[in-house]
Amino acid sequence: MTRSIYEVFLERFGVKVGDYVEIVYDGGKRLRGVLMPKTIFSGEDILILKLDNGYNIGMRMDRIADVRRLEPPWSRIEGVRKTVERPASLPRVRIIAVGGTILSRVDYRTGGVRSAVTPEDLFDIIPEVLDIADIETVVLMNKYSEHLTPGDWAKIAEAVYRAYRDGVDGVVVLHGTDTLGYTSAALSYALRGIDIPVIFVGSQRSSDRPSSDAAVNLLSALYAAGNMDVGGVFVAMHHTTSDDLVAIHLGTRVRKNHTSARYAFETIGAPPLALVKNLKEIRYTWLRDELSFVKRGGGSVEYRPGFAERGVFLLKFFPGMDPSVVRLVMASGIDALVIEGSGLGHVSQGIIEVLEEFIEEVRVFMASQCIWGRTNLRVYDTGRDLLRIGVVPLEDMLSETAYVKASWILGSFGKDYLDTLMPTPISHDMLPRSFPARRRCVDDWI
Amino acid sequence: MTRSIYEVFLERFGVKVGDYVEIVYDGGKRLRGVLMPKTIFSGEDILILKLDNGYNIGMRMDRIADVRRLEPPWSRIEGVRKTVERPASLPRVRIIAVGGTILSRVDYRTGGVRSAVTPEDLFDIIPEVLDIADIETVVLMNKYSEHLTPGDWAKIAEAVYRAYRDGVDGVVVLHGTDTLGYTSAALSYALRGIDIPVIFVGSQRSSDRPSSDAAVNLLSALYAAGNMDVGGVFVAMHHTTSDDLVAIHLGTRVRKNHTSARYAFETIGAPPLALVKNLKEIRYTWLRDELSFVKRGGGSVEYRPGFAERGVFLLKFFPGMDPSVVRLVMASGIDALVIEGSGLGHVSQGIIEVLEEFIEEVRVFMASQCIWGRTNLRVYDTGRDLLRIGVVPLEDMLSETAYVKASWILGSFGKDYLDTLMPTPISHDMLPRSFPARRRCVDDWI
User: What's B120's domain CATH number?
Assistant: First the structure.
């Protein structure tokens, strides 16, 4: 195999990717940082350095006078490696690549992020994965998650089911964060009762950025997939701004609540099931005793991967919403409508009239745009009117999960099952009670 | 005036509404609690007792053997009265009633809540209001907030403007909580620069329920309206589960984030501007120094109360969304579409094509369904495609506020101003930076 210009250049100075170096540049400027791998986007003659301040810089090789290896002031990868104790025999985990930022790199020409990494590339960047599990990889597709469809959910479910049938100890799905919660809900339905951990994971920053959460999220997801003693579909994402805690969220109750922060994901209405601490310890929250989970190896999956591609619409109510536009949606050929009502699950009088017109053909289900809390249509006149015309309230189910569930019921059972299955708790999508999972802190405001 | 059966009955035992009593009932049962006022819904011969455990109970008078006044083990109303120091001269505050739970009582026949209280009735239930301000009241309408329209926002703006012209020191608007944030945003635009406090307030539990937040919210709102030294449109609601803190939220950045909890409201992307502590002290957060606020009496209002009744649609994107349904919405005669995209502000390829088809006639603005964080269309290909076709990103503006703003621009300026005014920061609807307003607490989970 011929060596690249990049490799030849580094060899000249006796350094390699990952080294902490000082570079003498442009006739005297000195810069320190970590040598980054070449990307397929950076030019052949461009060297990428991750500076101490967190920024990446690209330098033309012909302007570089010297490169010297230094002792690094810090190194996350070294720190991580030390804390992972290699067990006698590693669990077998299959990584299924779907897409997203965790499989991306910064394009140094445009500054944008492009999807261009294989799972194997990830191992180059994060070699510690090989200490955590015996890994097999499948590239199923490479899509940003906003482009996924119910048909894609079915394909992902099938790939996970195949891994399960092949006897793996756990599955990790690499997935974009935008609609991660929708897909994790979909698999929570399609693979009900699965008795190995299926862990979705993404990252908010691409893996070649110094602030990337890709490494910690992926390593924690692998550890959870290999070592958790419960089965089910979960999401592993950064819990706080610090690196040492990754939360294991319930697949039907997780939501992306920040556009860019690494700790964007939250389990709604409950704490996460567990926290992975320092990549080597699983700490279950009290939720594990409150709800019932399938023990690892203690169940059998009920595999129903059908999802209707069309037929369900998710509609957010707002004051002043034009009933005639809602009429267009109701008459568009859908079988089910999930409404994000206001407060306990309300819409205006004009909308109620349109819903009533179509309710024989289009079943209507009510969630709340408040996100937290439970719908209740028995408190106010508006709610009682909605109950009277046949709208079905969904307790504390997330609207996004409700949309996925309706698509699953249509695809796996048929329209006649909507009314009974939608308000039936499945995979913790409706909780028997709400848990005090949120606290407010005011001390640092005043 | 003839006395009611209720009054005559209480008089017989020498007790009155608000007394803590022991009742001997049904031949021996003893119950303790606070005598509640008769409601127009309870039967003439039914006595309502608020028990120590928090529940209300109705008892037929002919089954009551004895009623004795006792020293109350606690009394929130007494506690409140003691802490309010009556100033030499009280500020003049106008209360404008719009509707909602704060103007409601439980209907003891159905268990539901019905809108049936005037501001004057509130004074009977919460007499302390008279210690806080010289109060004048206007009943503008009596609507639950899910039924309000942009035309109603204009009426409310007009009533507040009239109060301002009449020289009041502050205004309190009693309003349903469901769409409180939409209306407070509307008035933040319609009354830009107003140099007295306009405080929206609601309650999550009706005022005759023991757990009601009506009293604390109303008293705090009145105190803030009379005593804050900045002008602007704000929302006063319970901050925590404890009674002593009520937050003063920014009108354009407040959201109802729980269907039923008293602390449902949050300022998004920043701390609230202030906290009213124990009904007698305003503590500003550091936000007051970070952003610029109008000093009380130091500005002049720019009154523009026009809102388009139709013409704007707020649409939440979801994976698998049918482009043909979006086409129906785009072709329905609207002038502007506000999208709640996924993540940084994304939609699927099929939706982008539909938006592009109509973008000359229908201007498209992008917010995020993540709620927290900032849109950014420059990071991923999907975002750059949206920018290319002319979609305008709205930074950290709430989608609900964006919908209200578009309606205001159409109603007060005209369609040609959408592209310039929508992404222009007004009344703090877009912040120059995001503030660390949320912290996670994990200690109580494990």
Answer: 3.40.50.1170
